[in-house]
Design brief:
The complex is a heterodimer of chains A (388) and B (382).
Chain A: H1 9-16, H2 18-55, E1 60-64, E2 76-77, H3 79-85, E3 90-99, E4 104-106, E5 113-115, E6 117-121, H4 132-141, E7 145-149, E8 164-167, E9 170-178, E10 189-193, H5 194-200, E11 213-214, E12 216-221, H6 227-237, E13 242-246, H7 247-260, H8 263-293, H9 295-304, H10 308-345, H11 353-380, H12 383-387
Parallel strand pairs in A: 6-10, 7-9
Antiparallel strand pairs in A: 1-12, 1-13, 2-11, 3-6, 3-12, 4-5, 4-8, 7-10, 8-9
Helix pairs in contact in A: 1-10, 2-7, 2-8, 2-10, 2-11, 8-11, 10-11
Chain B: H1 2-18, H2 20-51, H3 53-56, E1 62-65, E2 78-79, H4 81-87, E3 92-106, E4 114-121, H5 131-140, E5 145-149, E6 164-167, E7 170-178, E8 188-192, H6 193-199, E9 206-207, E10 209-214, H7 220-230, E11 236-239, H8 240-254, H9 256-285, H10 288-296, H11 301-338, H12 346-373, H13 376-381
Parallel strand pairs in B: 4-8, 5-7
Antiparallel strand pairs in B: 1-10, 1-11, 2-9, 3-4, 3-6, 3-10, 5-8, 6-7
Helix pairs in contact in B: 1-11, 2-8, 2-9, 2-11, 2-12, 8-9, 9-12, 11-12
Chain lengths: 388, 382
């Protein structure tokens, strides 16, 4: 028997004709770009819509009974916050106030008005984990002071620290910024103190200005407290006009809405499925064409006495190399595309290791599958037939 | 000449039939490219249709908007007085206000609350082009009456005539329904201007849009110019096409939805071109020795090119038909789930067909360039 050569024959075959290799790699790259981009677009929707929830600094969250997503307000009586505070194991409950209808921002450069999302809380005990909040805690206490999300869409005029603008018909001064990002509903976000919020957006039904309703009650527990036990206690203690949710439950609520109750969630999911189906089919096509082209060479090897196992090994090797070679440029192309879209929209668009691993696995699996389908022709081929 | 042409066709068909698997793979590739382009174009078109959904059913020749009008559901408003001023123009026969906002809505029969788009109209003005809506305006004049879009998402709870729903601070009674489509929003309802004011508290003297009807035969562009000059700069006058164009432009360029769907179309186009080139180039290069033989036998390059083009034509059509079928299936599925406007249009079917045909033919000819330069001897040894 001939000694099996140590050289990676699969790779040698591929690099023998650089032109053909380029075409095959291009095909795999394109399939991967399609899969990654459709998956990325879909995740941009879900990640961007849930980012606010992930930045909440708490263990349990009190929301109105009919709350179904973060953007649309569903205020509940602020008394519930005080009631929750009295429970043992609860260290603090801090109300978050939200306004996004009356909060019209006037861009000082062109005078154009845009609705902005306003988040308000006591700056001395912030309900979010933005690192800039500690630094600006004092400045936020000043009358008419706001922080502006630097990842907001640019038609707000990209306000910086020190710039002045108009919010809900009143003057505001931007004292700093933070980074959250836009989503499919909110184009921009402003943070202000609860005192300022009361002044800017008084309850229309109340005679004197007061904060009777809150949007989220952010509960922080004592160290070592039993999360689920306290959640149960809170549910018992509080009237049923509110829900008490863990962070995961709040995230699930939001995701369920976007997944199941919106046209856009459906369309993005469909886009992703179409992307994956077509991507895998293209991988198959490329590999199949590539392997069957080298049929005469394989037949020669076979005629020389190489084992079936050896031949299968070479073809599978070829499949893996093509998958890997096609994957790398695809990641680069997608990253550029994502940067461009993130820059234009302020959405969260990123490739997580998990996503990459999933698409890579799928690509390799498809390439292996198509290689093994193609190899059948190699094994059944009669050398004389092939050379005809 | 006719003989050689007939021979060419036979060569093409024999060619295709000879490598059945190869042909099937090539047709599959073209089919996928076509299907993907159709699906992405369909999504994109639903964005464009959603943009002008409401404008399309309103009866107007010119529209007044705020200078910083963003989009229909973020209109920003302008002083109501401008509407009366516009009415004074000799060519304007009617000027009606339209109010647009959002309201938190709940049909007590289910446990959902949803933010829906609410349009406020003067029930005595004929602002609607849809007879179904127009006919129900008299009922809308009653206090706290509302018309509900049947295609609103199920969570909105469309219900039946006579149902009551909580909307903001009011309880509204459904007096009728209409068929439009809420687009990417949860639902749409129509109320009278009086009810609209009560929903949103303060009796502001601002309107969202001003719909102007002109005297028959009046030049809309000219009247728009004259009005723009005579009115203060706190209002903008647009013709119907201008308003529709701006709305679409905003959706495509500025909304996250539009930008991402636009990217989807670009990815699909790119994908289509590359896949088609790859499939067709392989198809041609696999037959180069045979084509070289034809040339060596004395057939002209033009003749060989014709054979290749015929093959491209066949693959283009054979790939297009199943691709079209897949697209119809996806459209149907999407529409039944989302109620988004859209569906196959003749224009899109034709555009994709032409693009596909062009991509197939150009790819084959590009692949054939090798043959022009090639020495037959080299081709046989390769």
């Amino acid at each position: 028997m001939i000694d099996p050569p140590r050289t990676p024959l699969g790779l040698k075959i591929l690099t023998h004709t650089p032109g053909r290799l380029a075409v095959s790699v291009g095909g795999v790259t394109l399939a991967v770009v399609l899969m990654l981009s459709q998956d990325g677009f879909r995740n941009a929707l879900f990640d961007s819509q849930t980012e606010l929830i992930r930045r909440l600094d708490g263990d349990l969250f009190i929301v109105g009974r009919l709350k179904y997503m973060m953007y649309v307000p569903e205020p509940f009586p602020a008394r519930r916050v005080h009631q929750a505070r009295s429970l043992p194991g609860v260290r603090a409950v801090r109300p978050l106030y939200v306004e996004n209808v009356r909060s019209v921002w006037r861009n000082p450069h062109d005078g154009h008005r845009r609705a902005v999302r306003v988040l308000a809380f006591d700056p001395r005990d912030p309900v979010f984990d933005f690192p800039e909040l500690a630094e600006h805690a004092d400045a936020l206490q000043a009358p008419d002071a706001v922080l502006f999300d630097r990842n907001s869409r640019d038609y707000f005029g990209r306000p910086e620290a020190g710039s002045r603008a108009e919010l809900a018909g009143r003057r505001v001064e931007v004292v700093g910024d933070f980074a959250l990002g836009a989503d499919f509903l909110a184009d921009g976000t402003v943070i202000m103190s609860d005192r300022n919020f009361l002044k800017f957006f008084p309850d229309r039904l109340a005679d004197s200005p007061r904060l009777d309703t809150a949007e989220v009650g952010v509960v922080r527990l004592e160290r070592g407290a039993d999360l689920l036990a306290i959640q149960r206690r809170l549910r018992d203690v509080l009237p049923d006009d509110v829900l008490v949710l863990t962070r995961q439950e709040l995230l699930d609520l939001e995701l369920d809405y976007w997944h199941n109750n919106t046209a856009i969630g459906y369309v993005f999911t469909l886009g992703m499925v179409v992307g994956f189906v077509i991507g895998t089919m293209i991988c198959y096509q490329v590999l199949h064409t590539n392997v069957s082209h080298y049929l005469p060479q394989f037949a020669t090897l076979k005629a020389m006495g190489f084992t079936r196992r050896y031949l299968v090994g070479v073809v599978l090797q070829q499949g893996v190399f093509l998958a890997l070679l096609g994957f790398v440029p695809a990641v680069v192309v997608c990253q550029v595309l994502f940067w461009a879209v993130a820059w234009a929209t302020g959405l969260l668009l990123e490739m997580t290791p998990l996503q990459l691993a999933f698409v890579l696995t799928l690509t390799v699996a498809m390439c292996l599958l198509s290689a093994s389908l193609a190899v059948r022709r190699v094994l059944t081929a009669d050398p004389a037939e092939v050379f005809r | 000449m006719r003989l050689t042409a007939a021979l060419g066709t036979r060569i093409t068909l024999r060619n295709l039939a000879h490598g059945k698997v190869r042909t099937a793979v090539a047709v599959g590739g073209v089919c996928l490219a076509v299907a993907l382009l159709f699906v992405q174009l369909g999504f994109f078109e639903s964005v464009l249709l959603t943009a002008t959904l409401v404008y399309d059913v309103l009866d107007f020749d010119l529209v007044l908007t705020a200078p910083d009008y963003v989009m229909l559901t973020q209109p920003n408003g302008f002083p109501e007085g401008r509407l009366h001023q516009a009415r004074a123009h000799q060519d304007v026969v009617a000027a009606s206000p339209l109010y647009v906002s959002w309201v938190r809505w709940r049909n007590p029969q289910n446990s959902f609350r949803r933010a829906v788009v609410v349009l406020g109209v003067n029930p005595h003005d004929g602002v609607s082009l849809v007879p179904e809506l127009q006919g129900q305006f008299p009922a809308l004049a009653r206090a706290d009456a509302v018309l509900v879009d049947r295609l609103s998402r199920p969570e909105v709870g469309v219900g039946e005539v006579g149902d009551v729903a909580e909307a903001g601070p009011l309880t509204l009674t459904t007096v009728g329904q209409f068929t439009l489509s809420p687009g990417f929003d949860a639902g749409m309802v129509v109320v009278s201007d009086q009810t609209f004011r009560r929903l949103f508290g303060s009796p502001t003297q601002e309107v969202s849009l001003g719909l102007l009807k002109l005297r028959a035969g009046a030049d809309a562009a000219r009247v728009a110019r004259e009005l723009q000059e005579s009115l203060p700069p706190d209002v903008r006058v647009l013709t119907r096409p201008e308003a529709a164009f701006r709305e679409r432009e905003y959706w495509v360029v500025n909304t996250s939805t539009g930008i991402i769907f636009g990217c989807g179309v670009i990815v699909a186009l790119l994908f289509g071109v590359v896949v088609t080139y790859q499939v067709l180039a392989l198809e041609v290069s696999g037959r180069l020795p045979e084509f070289a033989t034809l040339k060596a036998l004395g057939f002209s390059h033009r003749y060989v090119a014709a054979v290749v083009l015929q093959k491209a034509l066949f693959l283009a059509v054979a790939g297009y038909v199943p691709g079209f079928g897949i697209a119809l299936l996806v459209y149907h599925l999407s529409q039944s789930v989302t109620n988004l406007p859209g569906g196959m249009t003749l224009e899109r079917a034709a555009a994709v067909f032409v693009l596909n045909l062009a991509a197939c033919c150009l790819s084959s000819l590009a692949a054939l360039r090798i043959l022009r330069r090639a020495n037959p001897v080299d081709l046989f040894t390769a």
